[in-house]
Specification:
The complex is a heterodimer of chains A (335) and B (374). Chain A is 54% helix and 4% strand. By secondary structure, chain A is mostly helical. The longest helix of chain A has 24 residues, at 86-109. Chain A is globular and about 65 Å long. Chain B has 374 residues and is α+β, with helices and mostly antiparallel strands. Chain B contains ten helices and 20 strands. In chain B, strands 2-1-3-12 form a four-stranded antiparallel beta sheet, with no helix packed on it. Chain B has a four-stranded antiparallel beta sheet with strand order 6-11-10-15. The longest helix of chain B is centred in the middle third of the chain and has 20 residues, at 144-163. The two termini of chain B are 14 Å apart. Classes of the chains: A mainly alpha (335), B alpha+beta (374). Chains A and B meet through α8 and β3 of A and α4 and α5 of B. The structure holds zinc ion (ZN) (2 copies). The site of one zinc ion (ZN) has 7 residues of chain B, from α3.
Chain lengths: 335, 374
C-alpha cells in the first residue's frame, strides 16, 4: 500500500485509509456527537445539501482544515446511512466522485514529478483494476479496459476508431483517463456507503437526519421504475440517474417507451431532472409533442430494436430474444 | 429439399462423418459451450451440451445433421434456456462473406431460379420465359475471384488484429466457412469477456466506421491549422498517413492540398478510405455473444463443402481442399446453367440433363438447388 499524506485523504476520503486515520485520532462516534464537534456535523450536512443540488463541493485546498474535511466526509456518510435514502446517497456519491475526479486529474497532470503520479495511478488500478501507464505525455490503457467504459459514452470522440491506438493500447489525456472512470468511482463510493453498518447515532445528529429525509422527498422519483423494463430502457434511465448526458435519440426512446406503457407526461418528466441540460418547461413541451397531445397530434412510436442497435442504444440480453421492438419485451417470452 | 434429394445428401454426409472422425473435434472448453444442429427440412435444435468428441460423433451418426453449430460463448450451464445459462465469455469471431463484398463478378456466377416452375437462367430477367412468374431465387456458385477477394479481407483483418489490437498471429484461427467466405476466431483471452456493445465498437474500428476528421487533425473551425498524422504512428492514424503520403517527397504538397480542400472534403476522403481499407466483416456476427457458429470440420449444407481451417491462406483452394465428400458416381438431372469447378475439374453447364457425377459434385448441385435425383 502507498503511504498517504493527510492532504491525499482530504482529496480522496473514500479510501480505506481514511477509516484508519479516524481510528488513529481515537475519536468515536459518541464524541463526534458532542457540542464541540457541531461544526463538523454542519459541514457534513452542507456537503450533502450541495451534492443534492448537483453541485460539487470544492473548498479551497490551501486554506482548509484537514481534520474537519476528512471528518465531515465520514459524518456525511453516517448521516446518509441513518436517513437511508438511496436518492441522496447516489447524488452524494456522484458529486464526491466528480470532486475526486478533479483531484485525480490534477494529480495526473503534474506529470514531471513521478511521485505525484504514483498515487492517482494506484487508485485507478486498485479500485478499478485498470493498469494505466505513462508514455511521454500521455496515458495508455489496454483496449478491452478502454472499451468496457467508453461504450457508455455516446459522443463520437469516444469511439475506438477516433482514438489513438497502437499495440493493443489506447492513448488518453489526463482528463480523459479520469472521465473514463467517473461512473465507477461514483458506484464505488455508493457501494462503500451501502456496505458500512453503523450502530446508534448520537442524539445531536437526529435533527439533521430528519432534515435529510425531508430533503430526499423533494427528489423522490414519481416515475415507476420497474424491473421488467428491457435493458435498453434500464440503460437509458441509468445514464440519466448518473447525471450523464443521454443523447436525443436515447431520450426519444425513453419517452416513447414509457408513453407506450401508459405513463403520463407528468410521470415521465422527473426522470430527466438529472440531465446536465435539464429545463422543466422544455422537457414537458418535448414530451407533449412526442405523446401527440400538442402540435399536429402525431403520437410517436417507440423505435425498433434494429434502429436502436444502429444508434448504439441497444443492450440486448438473452431475454430480448425474439422481439423486434422494446415494447414487446416480457410479452413474448420464449419457453 | 425433395425427399429423394435429401436421401442422397444425407447418405453422403453420413459417409463423410463416419470416415472422418479424425477430422471432427469439439473445440476447447467444449463442456462450457452450447451445441446445436439442423436436419434437412427441419428446424434448429439448440441448447445441447457436448462433453467430448465421442458424444459429438455419436450425435453425428445418430442424427446425420445437415449443419452443426457450436457457441462461441462459454456458459456455466450450456444446456439450460438462454436466460439461465450464465454467460461467462465468448471467443471474438469475425465473418467475412463474399456476398457482402458487392463484387462485380457476382452477376457472372449467379443463377436465377424461377420459384414457381424451377427453370434456371443465368442473366437477370424481369419475368420467367417459361411460366411468366416474376419471383426468382438467386443462387451463387463457386467463384475463385470471390474467394481471393475474401482472402484479401481476411489479410486486412489479420493485419489490424496483430498490429493495432496486439493479438498474436498464433491466436488467430482462419477457417473457410464451407460456402463462400471465411470465419476468423481469436483464441486470446484478453477480448473474451467483452460484451456486445464493446464488440460493436471494436467492429466499427475494424471496418473504419464512424470516424471523424478531427481524429486525423482536421478541425471544423480553424481549418487552416491542420496537424495530420505521421507515417510512423500506430493504428488507423499511421495507416491513413501511409496511404496519404505514399510518396515521401510529396508530403508537403499533399498536406497543403488537404488544408485547402477543408473539412467536408476530408470527410469524403475518409468515406472513400473506409470502402477500400476498412475490413468488410459482418458486424452482426461479431456483436452476437450468444451465437451458435458453424462447427469446424462439419459440412455446410448450402454447398456440401466443409468448414475447415486454412493453414496457408494464400494457397488455400476451398473448391478442392474443402471438397471432402465421396467420389463414387451418382446419377442426377442437373439444371446448372453455369459451369462449376470442384477438385480442379469442370462440371457443366447442364441444362436439365441426366448426368453421372462424382458424389461431391452431385451433392453440391443438389445443395444449391440446381439438380434433382433421377
Ligand atoms: Zn417459371
Ligand atoms: Zn465472384
Amino acid at each position: 500500500m502507498l503511504k498517504l499524506g493527510i492532504k491525499d485523504l482530504v482529496k480522496y476520503p473514500f479510501l480505506a485509509e481514511a477509516g484508519e486515520y479516524l481510528r488513529e485520532t481515537g475519536l468515536g462516534l459518541e464524541q463526534l456527537g458532542e457540542p464541540d464537534w457541531k461544526p463538523i456535523l454542519e459541514k457534513a450536512y452542507g456537503r450533502i445539501v450541495v451534492a443534492s443540488s448537483g453541485q460539487i463541493y470544492s473548498p479551497d485546498m490551501e486554506r482548509l482544515d484537514n481534520d474537519s474535511e476528512i471528518l465531515s466526509f465520514i459524518v456525511a456518510i453516517i448521516l446518509l446511512k441513518s436517513a437511508s435514502t438511496g436518492t441522496l446517497t447516489r447524488r452524494f456519491s456522484l458529486a464526491e466522485a466528480r470532486r475526486a475526479e478533479k483531484y485525480l486529474q490534477q494529480d495526473l497532470w503534474v506529470q514531471k514529478d513521478k511521485k505525484n503520479l504514483e498515487l492517482p495511478l494506484k487508485i485507478i488500478q486498485e479500485l478499478f483494476g485498470i493498469r494505466v501507464s505513462v508514455e511521454n505525455d500521455e496515458f495508455v490503457i489496454k483496449i478491452p479496459d478502454y472499451l468496457r467504459r467508453s461504450v457508455h459514452f455516446h459522443e463520437k470522440e469516444w469511439k475506438l476508431v477516433n482514438r489513438r491506438v497502437a499495440d493493443g493500447l489506447v492513448y488518453l489525456t489526463a482528463h480523459e483517463t479520469v472521465r473514463l472512470i467517473r461512473t465507477e468511482l461514483g458506484e464505488y463510493i455508493n457501494s462503500k456507503i451501502q456496505s458500512i453498518s453503523i450502530g446508534s447515532i448520537p442524539e445531536s445528529f437526529r435533527q439533521r437526519v430528519q432534515d435529510l429525509i425531508l430533503l430526499a422527498k423533494r427528489f423522490s422519483d414519481t416515475t415507476i421504475v420497474s424491473s421488467d423494463y428491457p435493458p435498453c430502457i434500464k440503460h437509458a434511465i441509468g445514464v440519466l440517474e448518473r447525471g450523464e448526458n443521454l443523447p436525443h435519440s436515447g431520450r426519444f426512446l425513453l419517452a416513447t417507451y414509457l408513453l407506450a406503457r401508459g405513463q403520463t407526461v407528468d410521470q415521465i418528466a422527473p426522470l430527466f431532472k438529472n440531465a446536465p441540460d435539464y429545463n422543466e418547461r422544455v422537457t414537458k413541451y418535448q414530451l407533449e409533442h412526442i405523446s401527440g397531445s400538442s402540435g399536429k397530434g402525431t403520437k410517436y412510436q417507440c423505435p425498433s430494436c434494429d434502429k436502436l442497435r444502429s444508434e448504439n442504444l441497444c443492450f440486448a440480453t438473452p431475454d430480448c430474444d425474439g422481439i423486434i421492438n422494446p415494447v414487446q419485451f416480457g410479452k413474448k417470452r420464449k419457453n | 429439399m425433395l425427399e429423394k434429394n435429401a436421401i442422397l445428401v444425407e447418405g453422403a454426409f453420413k459417409e463423410y462423418y463416419f470416415n472422418r472422425f479424425d477430422f471432427i473435434h469439439v473445440p476447447v472448453k467444449a463442456n462450457e459451450r452450447e451445441f446445436g444442429y439442423q436436419k434437412i427440412n427441419s428446424g434448429m435444435i439448440r441448447h445441447l451440451a457436448m462433453k467430448n468428441d465421442k458424444e459429438l460423433h455419436l450425435l453425428l451418426m445418430k442424427e446425420i445433421p445437415s449443419d452443426v453449430y457450436c457457441s462461441n460463448a462459454y456458459y456455466s450451464f450450456p444446456n439450460l434456456p438462454m436466460s439461465e445459462k450464465d454467460w461467462k465469455g465468448a471467443d471474438l469471431i469475425f465473418d467475412i462473406d463474399a456476398k457482402d463484398l458487392a463484387l462485380p463478378c457476382r452477376k457472372d456466377h449467379t443463377v436465377y431460379k424461377c420459384t414457381s416452375c424451377n427453370d434456371t437462367i443465368t442473366g437477370h430477367q424481369s419475368e420467367c420465359s417459361k411460366c411468366g412468374s416474376t419471383k426468382f431465387e438467386t443462387i451463387s456458385v463457386s467463384c475463385n475471384n470471390c474467394i481471393s477477394e475474401s482472402k484479401k479481407e481476411v489479410s486486412k483483418l489479420i493485419e489490424i488484429l496483430t498490429s493495432d489490437l496486439a493479438i498474436k498471429r498464433e491466436e488467430i484461427e482462419v477457417y473457410f466457412s464451407g460456402n463462400e467466405g471465411f470465419h476468423v476466431r481469436i483464441t486470446s483471452g484478453a477480448y473474451e469477456t467483452l460484451g456486445s456493445q464493446e464488440r460493436a465498437d471494436l467492429v466499427d474500428y475494424i471496418m473504419f466506421n464512424g470516424t471523424v476528421p478531427e481524429t486525423f487533425g482536421i478541425k471544423k473551425q480553424d481549418a487552416s491549422k491542420v496537424s495530420l498524422p505521421t507515417t510512423d504512428e500506430g493504428g488507423w492514424r499511421g495507416r491513413i498517413a501511409r496511404n496519404l503520403f505514399a510518396s515521401k517527397a510529396k508530403t508537403l504538397k499533399i498536406t497543403k492540398q488537404i488544408t485547402s480542400e477543408g473539412y467536408s472534403s476530408f470527410q469524403l476522403k475518409l468515406e472513400e478510405i473506409k470502402r477500400t481499407m476498412g475490413v468488410r466483416v459482418d458486424p452482426k456476427v461479431t456483436m452476437d455473444i450468444h451465437r451458435i457458429f458453424r462447427l469446424e470440420g462439419s459440412i455446410n449444407s448450402k454447398s456440401g463443402l466443409a468448414k475447415i481451417q486454412c493453414d496457408d491462406l494464400d494457397s488455400f483452394d476451398p473448391f478442392s481442399q474443402a471438397c471432402l465428400l465421396g467420389h463414387d458416381e451418382v446419377q442426377i438431372v442437373a439444371n446448372c446453367p453455369l459451369p462449376i469447378k470442384l477438385k480442379n475439374k469442370k462440371y457443366g453447364p447442364y441444362y436439365s440433363e441426366p448426368v453421372s457425377l462424382p458424389k461431391y459434385a452431385a451433392v453440391y448441385m443438389l445443395c444449391k438447388g440446381l439438380g434433382n435425383v433421377v
